[in-house]
């Protein structure tokens, strides 16, 4: 049995259902990322776990005990979790020290213990020199670290993060990603992390859960999600991809709309209906003449951009589709010329949805 | 944490449902009960007690009622227009020009909110009564004119409009000045770049942007004067005419005509609701959000040679609204009669001696006033705080109705509420009439909307995640409210408290119908003393009232628990 | 003073159903040593009064000196407030007051009808009071009286210019110069308006209303407006306020017109459920004693029906003034009509 379990979790507001039956198991010490576009239900799922909203159906179990169900909700303060908010939610009327110490005070610790624990975590997060400052006197990155320290100091059973980096500028964001991962490796809290940024998820997560329209599309390791997407949504959302579709010929063969055959090295096609295949931009080979027997089609170059390390082509193929492909710099095809594209079977991923 | 502790915490009860129910019930009783009785009585015959439509028929057929309404409406609109005409240029000069001393002027006008309008009206009696008024006396002796010459006469319709406008113009002023503060200078710069001269920019850009604030402020001034009792009672009655509030009050004289009074109050209620809707519509429309944007400090216009004209204008307005009335009050408090010239011989402390040591009502009234002021302010702030919390945090389905209930009394004019509360609580079931409780209920109802408005807007300023952070760190809802929300709202809470306090001690419209010998308030004894013509004593009481109000407001902002340094709010 | 009379609905309804007491007045009583003893045992008496507080307190002092050991608790308010308060207390079952006194004669007709008073006639009243200044059934008697007078500022109006009669006031030369109190507010002025309307007709008031009269509320207010110099001439107002202002040196003179001057009578009575019945009887009898009545006259400027009271020399004695008496029984049903007429002619 996993440490944190979501079983058939449903949340509706009146007629609108925002979480439509989510099942998820998180092992103790894992860092799970809920990833998806805005409005996909990931934040609501997180708030359900935190206990800020009551479940309309299904259950949330922590260590085997039900904390949320349609019948009742353990209030947030009864869950021994902690959370890092998008806005950091640092209390402006308390110093850094007071912010971090608050959770410990509620746990009725002696002031010596509190001092010791707070100093420890402030050292780890490099905030010790700032302990007397008010949040308003800190930079964005420092505020973020206070927020982390405040959440970690209580040694929560589960740590929740709600888009924690979205308010930081790009450089700082990258730095903080590694910081979060480092702290996770150090403390190994069971962590649920909500983000809409796929690279943030890739860097930090043990397990990525891609959500769409209130449901889980796919859950797996970052590599699983990237290399072995199971749906068109996941393939498109994680890393750039081309989606080619056509008629299903066999379990792994598709007759594409541009009148060419694609053999897929992995994945399974939907048993009926239209067949879809995903091929990542950088996996496509491009040439001015036909160099391959199978999994190949010719088209016309619509756009070509030189990007230093590679060239970025846009090629329109029969059937009305446009394929994006990245090639080495030395493959030089002018706009308007004919181009042959090769989709290596091992990189063609058959998608069931 | 061990599982048992988690178990233990689960037992904590969420109090929000019972609190919600109690609040809902309380607010319903406060608002609905008086309205119910007004409507009930308006259909009840004053003679026999049966059902009748005669009271409503009298609204149309009784010429004294129709006239009172016509005069009241005319007066209110005149006050609104006058307030707006005076306040708008003042606001612009103070907010957007390099007028010397503009911060001081602004502070002065804001502080003048504390002046009860009835005290102002009495000050104008002292200044501008046709024969004994200081202004007339001075004018006559200056030009050697005989006693029949009258320069100004406050006991006229114009005099009434003027005296009320002096105390409603700060509403327009404050709204417009705040709006001018927020008009982003880049909008004005854009106009200037496009070739608009300073006047064109003012006329085409700045003015339309603050127009909603002007209209909204004017409507408040209209509403205030329409529902005001004290000033018309002091000025209109000697002049020989009624406005609707004084007419309703006169219906309570022996033998009381409660049904007619109730029916007469209903149109006032309807007009108030309509004006409030109009104000909401005006403020809600026309991209008013622009005013929320903060882009650059407001542009300050250089007055140059106009400075002196502007200064003269501002000083004239301030003289009329602040310096002269206060001067008159001070002078009357320290001289034998208001008309005496100030010399060493006429200076006296006899009014002070009378008020402080001889007049038996003083102590009781001061005690009642401040007791009620402090109680009302505290209870209203507490109710407003919890209501605003439930409403803004939407923690309970239906919490929105609480907000509606808490705002509803704003539509009930003081005198109407007075009628309603009298009808509700002066019957054998609720023997509250003649006690301080009925006044407490009245003040709570009257002040609730203002308190709630302040608290809910300040709640909107506290990010919900700050509270959620408290919850997830292990604090209960109440603990979070206490540890996190309350300190963050402290300034707003203190401000709301002071606002309610000042509003309570200057209230007269509802009070006048609900007070008795044992529940006298300073406002009422001032009014009573005016009826018996003791101006010196009134001025002494007025000064006491103002000084004490300022002191309470000052203390409220200094008490370490409430005020003090924000940094030390949590040790 | 009529205002702020908030009789509750129950009270108003009660008026219709009240039983009307009709009995012979009881035999007059004297202050006996037994009564004094019993009163001393009770130790105090509660006096609800509308007499000026300073006068009432002086009276209490005199009583306490005369009968040591009995405290007088003076509860002073305006007539209508006293009326309202006693109404509320009695309808709530509170019996607090022993002796009550207001300056509004209508009140006592009402109290009597309600059965709130007990019949008691002090010997002094029986012997010396004019018959029409005491209740034939013995429930109350006229404890004091004052006039509502015409008066003017002698420094602002010469004697030649001053009005001599009520109808003189209609002269255009007084336009904008007069001040008067309101019958809806003041019982004294209600009485005055009633008797003058009977005497001169309503068209007199209609014409007076066109004279640009300054309208104030209480009957204590016109004298103060005269003192302030806001108006030189008052149409009505309490005589005793004028006396006091004269003693302070304000140049005011009273005019007693030939047509007559309205008289407002202040009655007193003992409550039927007085908590200190013996002290009440003792105090009630004291109120009508020569000492008390003389004190009212000297200190309060009030008029007395005690024939032996000696008024200050400068005051015109009542015997030289033509008085206009009002009949409270006739007045009571006309109150609403008078108010309506008044508002029609004077605007409020």
From TrEMBL, chain B:
Keywords: Cell inner membrane, Cell membrane, Membrane, Transmembrane, Transmembrane helix, Transport. The chain crosses the membrane at residues 19-43, 69-95, 107-130, 150-173, 209-237, 257-276, 308-329, 370-392, 399-424, 430-450, 535-556. Its main location: membrane. Gene3D superfamilies: MetI-like. It is a multi-pass membrane protein. It is found in: Cell inner membrane; Cell membrane. The keyword Protease does not apply. It comes from the Bacteria. Residues 69-279, 366-556 form the ABC transmembrane type-1 domain. Belongs to the binding-protein-dependent transport system permease family. This is ABC transporter permease. It comes from Shinella pollutisoli.
From TrEMBL, chain C:
The keyword Signal applies. InterPro entries: Ferric-bd (IPR026045), SBP (IPR006059). It comes from the Bacteria. Keywords: Periplasm, Signal. Residues 1-23 form the signal peptide. This is Extracellular solute-binding protein.
